[in-house]
Amino acid sequence: MIYIITRASISNAYPIFAQKGYENPREATGRIVCANSHLANKPVDIEVPQTVLPDTVFEAIVRIPYDMQLKQVLANGKKGALNVGAVLILPEGFELAPPDRISPEIKEKMGNLSFQSYRPNQKNILVIGPVPGQKYSEITFPILSPDPATKKDIHFLKYPIYVGGNRGRGHR
């Protein structure tokens, strides 16, 4: 008889780590990958402008509310503050703004966060986390809108934006 014991890393449940198992972070049912690792269904808020102009940097603010008194078990076995993470699925053509295009006001709101694309060929899907929840329960994503003058396949319409967020450890 052979026993195989595995130990999941604390961070395996964050959207950034879901890249290994999911080609797309949004399932056909509409569920975001975060829902597969986190047992509870909690609200996440997003604030974006009603309209954006072509080739413009704007903010997408994701709020991940939770009770700040809650604790999670840390890697050392002690209790500590919860971490948070998020995935933001934008329309095709929208992407993370390059650093030289981000205004000082947006940079200040971003703090020291580092965002990345879900996959290199999916620049419209952004992930962040795990990051300290007490400091980053509100995350500002700097977004660059596409320019139809340079990308002929882009047309400005009404588009959906999907967001998923998590708090604490995943239970995957």
UniProtKB/TrEMBL annotation:
Pfam families membership: Apocytochr_F_N
Predominant subcellular localization, coarse grouping: plastid
Record GO terms (molecular function): electron transfer activity; heme binding; iron ion binding
Cofactor(s) it depends on: heme
Domain Cytochrome f large: residue ranges: 14-168
Keywords of the record: Electron transport, Heme, Iron, Membrane, Metal-binding, Photosynthesis, Signal, Thylakoid, Transmembrane, Transmembrane helix, Transport
Signal peptide, first to last residue: none
Subcellular location: Plastid thylakoid membrane
Cited InterPro entries: Cyt_f (IPR002325), Cyt_f_lg_dom (IPR024094), Cyt_f_lg_dom_sf (IPR036826)
Membrane topology: Single-pass membrane protein
Coiled-coil portions: none
Superkingdom of the organism of origin: Eukaryota
Record-level GO cellular component terms: chloroplast thylakoid membrane
GO biological process per UniProt: photosynthesis
Summary of the function given for this chain in its UniProt record: Component of the cytochrome b6-f complex, which mediates electron transfer between photosystem II (PSII) and photosystem I (PSI), cyclic electron flow around PSI, and state transitions.
Complexes and interactors: The 4 large subunits of the cytochrome b6-f complex are cytochrome b6, subunit IV (17 kDa polypeptide, PetD), cytochrome f and the Rieske protein, while the 4 small subunits are PetG, PetL, PetM and PetN. The complex functions as a dimer.
Family the UniProt entry places it in: Belongs to the cytochrome f family.
Name the UniProt record assigns to this protein: Cytochrome f
